[in-house]
Design goal:
By secondary structure, this protein is α/β, with parallel strands linked by helices. Helices cover about 50% and strands about 10% of the residues.
Length: about 350
């Protein structure tokens, strides 16, 4: 399943889901990404492709021990990445299994139009019909409603976890919030996820301390973490007394809605599936909510479609919020695309600019 496919559909049918993007991120943190990317290149997937795609194809081909289970079918939607469809088509060919697609058209309007909602509602009906036929399981509307209610409760608990960063200093460690993203990716329809997140929110509340010592600089992180260099990035942020209090990705998993049409509108509203104007509004709201003092932008080599508008995003955010904005180059999975020296230099620049404004 792709990250932002409506999980409520397979959950209502009692299916077990697995996310290749989460697996690729975890493999990168374990130091396995170089070998997986090399294996993918030997399979014919060029280095210019997204590192998640390359690692995902290598994992699917069994290029590492203890890899993901072989899926029976694939669930994909394109509300997260323009390259997702081609990746999942390649997975379907490689594994010789069915692919179910939900097409989320790019939106220019602030809210999805009634015709767009109807278009997606019809697609969901077809996907459900196909899954019933393939799995032999009957669709139960009441079960679907309960799954949706649970997903909303998990989203509310997730918001409480994110809002721990409203405290100053934030009790959340740098990049710590990303550790819990997989819970929301494949588990947001489970009661256990709500319980884990509620417990985490309580733990963070008890961890909060009174302000003291040198104040921490509060920043917004734009983009995906550099998973292969995560320890190095966190160490530099900590040593320079910088705290990530908000980011682009983690809020995008907190889908909240009241009915099927509301679900469709929520899944249409992912930050990288909306217009530049709406995306800027969403980032600005986050930065203001969490009292951001600076913005660090990751130009992710794997995410060229996302990064294409980042220069304008940088300019507009800096002007609107009147905070310094600094960028660096890296990758979510390929360690060769990240330079620790460049990252440290850009981080130093951001710290100096924030200090000048304080």
């Amino acid at each position: 399943m792709s990250t932002k496919f409506p999980l409520e559909i397979p959950a209502a049918l009692g299916l077990t889901v697995f996310c290749p993007e989460s697996a690729a991120a975890a493999a990168s943190c374990r130091g396995e990404s170089s070998a997986l990317c090399q294996a993918a290149e030997e399979m014919g997937y060029c280095r210019d492709l997204c590192s998640y795609v390359r690692m995902g194809m290598a994992l699917a081909a069994g290029q590492t021990a203890g890899g993901p289970p072989r899926p029976d079918f694939l669930l994909c939607c394109n509300n997260i990445c323009s390259g997702m469809l081609q990746w999942y088509r390649a997975l379907a060919r490689t594994l010789d299994i069915p692919l179910f697609l939900l097409d989320f058209p790019y939106q220019e309007d602030r809210e999805p139009s009634p015709s767009l909602v109807a278009y997606l509602r019809a697609q969901i009906t077809e996907v459900v019909r196909g899954l019933e036929e393939l799995t032999g399981r009957r669709w139960d509307p009441l079960r679907f409603q309960e799954v949706c209610r649970q997903a909303n409760r998990s989203a509310q608990a997730w918001q409480r976890v994110m809002d721990a960063a409203l405290a100053s200093p934030s009790p959340l460690g740098n990049m710590e919030l990303f550790d819990y993203m997989p819970l929301m990716v494949t588990g947001r329809c489970a009661k256990e996820t709500e319980q884990q997140l509620e417990a985490l929110a309580g733990k963070l509340q008890s961890r909060a301390v009174r302000p003291g010592g040198s104040p921490k600089r509060r920043i917004f992180w734009e983009g995906t973490p550099c998973w292969p260099a995560l320890d190095r990035v966190v160490d530099l942020l900590d040593r320079k007394n910088v705290q990530i209090v908000a980011d682009t990705l983690t809020p995008s998993l907190g889908f909240r809605y009241e009915d099927l049409d509301g679900l469709i509108r929520a899944y249409c509203g992912t930050i990288n599936g909306v217009s530049l104007e709406r995306g800027l509004e969403m980032r600005t709201e986050l930065c203001r909510r969490y009292r951001v003092e600076g913005i660090l932008v990751h130009y992710n080599r794997s995410c060229r479609p996302w990064c294409g508008a980042l220069q304008e995003t940088e300019r507009r955010l800096g002007r609107e919020l009147e905070v310094p904005v600094v960028s660096f180059h890296g990758d979510q999975g390929d360690p060769e695309a990240f330079s620790a020296a460049q990252f440290e230099l850009r981080l130093d620049t951001l710290c100096e600019l924030m200090d000048q404004k304080s």
